[in-house]
Amino acid sequence: MRPAARSGTERGADPMDALNALVALANFVLIPAMAYGSQLALGALGVTLIYGILRFSNFAHGDTMAIGTMITILVTWGLQALGVSLSPLPTALLAIPFGIAGTALLVLGTDRLIYRFYREQKAKPVILVIVSMGVMFIYNGLTRFVIGPNDQDFDDGTRFLISARDFKAMTGLDEGLALKSTQAITVVTAVIVVALLFWFLNRTRTGKSMRAYSDNEDLALLSGINPERVVTVTWIIVSALAVVAGTLYGLDKSFKPFTYFQLLLPIFASAIVGGLGSPLGAIAGGFIIAFSEVGITYAWKKVATYLLPEALEPSGLVQLMSTDYKFAVSFVILIIVLLFRPTGLFKGKSV
Amino acid sequence: MSGGDYGDRGNRDLSIAKPGGMGEARPVREGGHEHAAPGGPFLIGEAMTGGYGRGADILHSCTIAVERGEIAVIVGPNGAGKSTAMKAVFGMLNLREGSVRLDGEDITELSPQARVRKGMGFVPQTHNIFTSMTVEENLEMGAFIRDDDFRGTMAQVYDLFPILKEKRRQAAGELSGGQRQQVAVGRALMTQPKVLMLDEPTAGVSPIVMDELFDRIIEVARTGLPVLMVEQNARQALEIADKAYVLVQGRNAHTGTGKELLADDEVRRSFLGG
Amino acid sequence: MRTLGLFALVAALIIATGVLQSWNSALIILNMGLVSAIMALGVNLQWGLAGLFNVGVMGFVALGGLAVVLTSVAPVPEAWAAGGWRVLAALALGLVAIVLSVVAWKRLPRGRRGLAVALIAVGGFFLYRAVLDPGVDAVEAVNPAATGFLGGLGLPVLLAWPVGGLLAAGVAWVIGKTALGLRSDYLAIATLGIAEIIIAVMKNEDWLARGVKNVIGLPRPVPYEVDLQASSSFVETAGSLGLDATTASTLYVKLGYSVLFTVVLVVLLVLAQLALNSPWGRMMRAIRDNEEAAEAMGKDVTARHLQIFILGSALCGIAGAMMTTLDGQLTPSSYQPLRYTFLVWVMVIVGGSGNNLGAVLGGFLIWFLWVQVEPIGQWVMGIVTSGMADGSAIKAHLLDSVQHMRLLTMGVILLLVLRFAPRGLLPER
User: Which regions span the lipid bilayer (chain A) (predicted)?
Assistant: First the structure.
């Protein structure tokens, strides 16, 4: 209780400090996790749709995202060469429809050539998982063959919606809040895509027929629903989801084939935490995984410094785990959820 | 079953393979055409021979027919191929021999979806509703092939089964056994079929519910809709049957009106317990 | 007959490599083929005999590699003095916290146990970090350029192989207990996740095995080339065979590994075959083909599955230890799922699920192709691009991308086999 320590500003009691802490939290945890969560949710939606309707976990999903993003990047370069631009938005947004079309064609071709045979044989879903491993190898090889294994940065839009400096000037706070345009685009796009998807699944005849097929294949057949049409529509939707998720991730971070392959684990974790086959679960799972990954690997020192009195100020980084363990986080969350709810959070609300 | 070239080796891993909901049927492929075949009964599966996939034949030259305004029932011991015969009529398995004709057309080469369009309504024995969908969505899926306004038909179904109207926003999987059966029949009626095919509609329901279901089925038949039905409860089925088929090991053993078969000594001894 | 023919084909391929390329390349392929065969044997035990879907092979292989460092490298006394015991104490503390949480969960009444377990787990975590971090810092500060880790036990390197198996088995027990013990089976995602975690630990925990700084110069069970070249009797013998001393020494060393690996493979294969045809193997197949019936007969299916999952993972651990011994170094960043998990799956499916000899064959054949697709692709691409103008961007890109052909080829092979020979080259029975 030295009197000297009490002079000056009382840390932790100042309302500005609380605001600063909040801004720091938003800047380093909330905003990045929202963006990452949206990307994971879109990826997990694709996995969960395939699981619900085609009844297997698609190991090639990460590489479908990679190949779709690659097509988008190639078209983006083409558009840029033609001088087309969407400034201040990234040109890639214009290229996404082409990416979706290309990916859908590729994926439908794969289905005709490969997956359909096993459906006709009434192969067990596990066999389709092994088949998807083969497809994974091929897509992975194709992506690297065409665009190479290296990083590609294809974001040509305005970098920031709000830069840290502008924010500081605007608010007078010590802490800056940067909102990257790609983060804003990610969240907005994800909301639109998810709303469209839910409207489609719950309100349209085709969407309902997909849910019916997922629920009971033979009865769908008896109702006059054409299974092959359901499967085709599913692959098209999944292609769209994969390309949008992949492109948003690439814009927000960068495009590298191997990173996309590795996204498979957090994406599966999201889909399973939410309850495989449940679209709502996939979204919830995506955000749960993203927030825990970012939260647990974030160094909380900054936020703690604002909030705690000086005497209690942490000496270390207050980082629960190094960022290299982010996969471990998704995994531990997954195990905890499965221990308590073996069917995931949204059981029975299947596609 | 984990055998075959594409079996699962007993794998039960939920994280990679979705259990349940997978089809068992090996339906007739799409793309076949019907052709005119005038004469004969309204619906007939004639001299049908075949089985599932590459497995052994289950049906051996089996014939099933139903006329307009009639109730025809298929009875027989367990494993006699009763359900298989009905699935064969519906195109859920490939016939090696024989033909299926409906209303003056040969439809042997048509896929089940195409047969629905031709006016067949089929209620399977189990897994006959979409459990995760609401009652109303189940009925909507029943009307999937219809492009016209089907609200009138839905109202008729609700009239026939008032409880369904009450529960129309509930998931069908949450209903009781008898109610689920009503959803199943209602779903099949939504197409306004020319013939209704029921595979053991009373399996697993209580005797009271069974009687009620039989009453409803008779009610449906009175509207002029021919009904073809597989039944485990042979005596009750024969009582309401205009025509009856006794199958044994995939073959026609006895054929006649319900009354004739009830009176037949041999049928009574072997299937009706004396 | 078919078995013999196919194995003869693989032998011919390897010999052809020796004649056309070099005997050194042939022996490299043979040695890694032997290691791959053991990995495939392990996965085949799990998938072929019990239908268990292990997509974390990479993790068990990496654990085998870690075992080599922990067993054979000489200990670093300074590091132990600096903080080694503290690290060990922290690990023990972490273990105690986990055990306590589990016990508390099982013993305490329903009402408050959630809170209690959360308190134990969170408190335990912070305590663990508080004890661990200074110890780790101290250990990693000891001569970081050369050591910066605790080292191993300094035991003979051959001992590391069974240790690798044990380490993998231990981790498999934990995974199996959790994933197979859940009300539903979640083995695939569990193994996928744990493999990534094992690699992350090996990359980041420098005190353990230097992380991405790699451990090089691991002890070898065979003599060093330079020593052989210095030995006059060896040079003489080589000369009498018409070989120069350098080539002869590299061949001798590789042959030494081949002999050791062959012995291990043969022993494991014989054991696996005996197991397959024993009452135990028949029971496993009975469970696989009809789980309900087996359960009705009083077989504890989960326990049997756990058993076979542990055995299969142990084989992968042994193979991983052998591979790291062969490489002479541990490089955690070299572990990639495509190469160490999914490629092994290709081996098993191509060879024949459920057939041990098939898995071994698949191991050799797929490894051979994995290595040789690149030169073959280069040759093909050379022909394809020969008509193009020199210096054209497309030609350069095509030639440059040949290295990625091998992934594509593996996918195509897997799909072709699944489609046209779904039971593999050597079908079960």
Answer: 21-54, 66-86, 92-114, 126-147, 183-201, 230-251, 320-340
Q: C197, A327: Cβ pair inside 8 Å? A: yes
Q: Is the torsion defined by CA of C77, C82, C86, C91 positive or negative?
A: negative
The subunits that touch chain B, with at least 3 C-beta pairs less than 8 Å apart, are A, C
Q: Do B15 and A221 touch (CB under 8 A)?
A: no
Domains of chain A (ranges, CATH numbers): 10-261 (1.10.3470)
Helix C301-327 and helix C57-72, axial crossing angle in degrees, nearest 10: 60
C-alpha to C-alpha distance for C8 and C1, rounded to whole angstroms: 10
Does the beta carbon of B117 lie under 8 angstroms from any beta carbon of chain A? Answer: yes
What mean pLDDT is reported for chain C? Answer: 91
- By CB atoms closer than 10 A (0-12, 13-18, 19+), residue C227 is exposed
Of C184, C203, C406, the CB nearest to A324: C203
The reported pLDDT for the residue numbered B102 is: 93
The Cα-based distances of B267 to A316, B77, B82, B250, C328 in angstroms read 88, 11, 16, 16, 82
A148: helix, strand or coil: coil
Pick the most confident of A83-87, A121-125, A132-136.
A132-136
Which helix H or strand E contains C284, and what residues bound it? helix C279-289
Between chains, do A121 and B13 touch, taking CB under 8 Å as contact? no
B31-119+196-207+226-274 belongs to CATH 3.40.250.10: no
Contact between chains at B141 and A209 (C-beta distance less than 8 A): yes
pLDDT per residue as tens digits for the range C115-169: 888 899 889 998 998 999 899 999 999 888 888 899 899 999 999 999 999 999 9
Residue among B102, B33, B24, B100 nearest B62 (CA): B100
Amino acid type, B44:
I
Alpha helices by DSSP H, C142-244: 160-179, 187-204, 206-209, 225-230, 232-240
Is the minimum CB–CB distance between C181 and chain B shorter than 8 Å?
no
Distance spanning both ends of chain B, measured CA to CA: 37
The pLDDT of residue B55 is above 50: yes
- CB hemisphere CA count around A112 (13 angstroms): 8
In chain A, residues with a C-beta closer than 8 Å to the C-beta of B129 are: 216, 219
The pLDDT-based confidence of C298 (bands split at 50, 70, 90) is confident
- A vs B, Cβ pairs < 8 A, gives 133
- B25 lies within 8 A of chain A by CB: yes
The beta-carbon neighbor of B8 closest among C48, C51, C184 is C51
Averaged confidence pLDDT in chain A: 89
- The verdict on C110 touching A (C-beta cutoff 8 Å) is no
For residue C257, give every residue at least 6 positions away whose Cβ sits within 8 Å of its Cβ, in sequence order, or none: C31, C221, C222, C326
Instruction: Answer for the pair B112, B28: CB distance below 8 angstroms, yes or no.
Output: yes
B113: pLDDT confidence band, cut at 50, 70 and 90?
Answer: confident
For the segment B142-200, what is each residue's pLDDT rounded down to a tens digit?
A: 999 999 999 999 999 999 999 999 999 999 999 988 899 999 999 999 999 999 999 99
Report the gap between the CA of A165 and the closest CA in chain C (Å). 35
Query: What pLDDT score does B2 carry?
Result: 39
CA distance, residue B17 to nearest chain C CA (Å) = 10
Quick check: helix, strand or coil at residue A84? coil
List chain B domain ranges. 31-119+196-207+226-274
CA dist C208 → B175, C71, C359 (Å): 59, 12, 33
pLDDT-derived band at B34, boundaries 50, 70, 90: confident
Chain A neighbours, 3+ Cβ pairs < 8 A: B, C
pLDDT tens, residue by residue, C80-126: 999 899 999 999 999 999 999 989 888 888 777 888 888 998 899 98
Task: Centre a 10 Å sphere on the Cβ of residue B79 and count the other Cβ atoms it contains.
Answer: 12
